[in-house]
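Run log, item B.
One chain of 342 residues. Sequence copied directly from the ordering sheet:
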Amino acid sequence: MQLREAIRHMLSLRPAPAESRAYIDLTLRIATIHILKRVTSGTLTPAFFGLTPSDLALDCLGPLFARDAEGRFTQIATYYTAIHWESMSDAELLAATRRIVYSTVHQQLVRLYRDHDPSLEKIIRNLRNALRGSAALHEDRRGAELWITLTGETPEQRVLPEMPWAYLEGELSGHLHDRTSLREVVQRCAMILDGQTICRKSVPLTSLALILRMAYARVGREPEDEGRPEETALRSEEAERIIGEALAILEAEKRPSYVEKGKVTGLTYTAYLDAIRDILRAEFVENDGNGVSYHARLEGLLPGLSQEEYREHHRCHLEYLAKLARERFLAMVRQELLGTQQ
């Protein structure tokens, strides 16, 4: 079965197992090959989770195949609809399918590592704080993954193999002492990346955090907190971006339930989203989330809206959507801090 036909089956209502099998088998092959490449490069050890590469691929892709109450593959439908898959060439469609597989695998690997090692989140947070003072290294988002990149890395260097974990961990652990700060570790990492020519001059943020966890364990130390408390807060431009992404996903997911089923008009639905954007901005960008009521936010977008009309026709919808948006925003922030994008 061709990929295009397989996707069409996946987007239909309650596709039969035989119809969904082709797409599921293809994505599992892509995920397994991706994991095996990481194993070969030394950047992943499936045995850490007690799983084979194929079992790990299946575990990672599980959330992608979740269905809603009506039997739809919601994540798959949302993704392919958003990228206008029907207008893509076969090559573009395959590339897009690889992207959703790689992104899902990465997100689930982060979750698995975090579940097995709760200290990982703290290391990532402290590592990002330490990086903010580095001129040699910077964060670089590549798809769903954050990379730590040596300033000046060329496109030709970016396609080289990733540095094996064992080598980088050994180099770093040899320079960890009682008084070595995480900022000094970051400087050392920059020197290691810059001092070689056979590997990329960059490393995924989550991978570096895991490498540091192993390096600190080897010398019997725990990484210290880096940066002042206010430095761990999300920057306003990052919060603005995540708010926009969270609302875009919410808009696509809930429009059928609200607009297409006739609960509210398209104009009112757009006003809800704009009001929620203002609510989230007030709380997470301006740090003033208690100043203006939900009714006042919506009234600014629907002039003349009375308290009675708001309570009778809009309150339950707006407050429910705002709750969903806030939860999604916070979940995406959590993934940002772990080096991922929802």
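Observations after the first pass:
- Residues 3-116 form one domain.
- The radius of gyration is 23 Å.
Flagged for discussion on Thursday.
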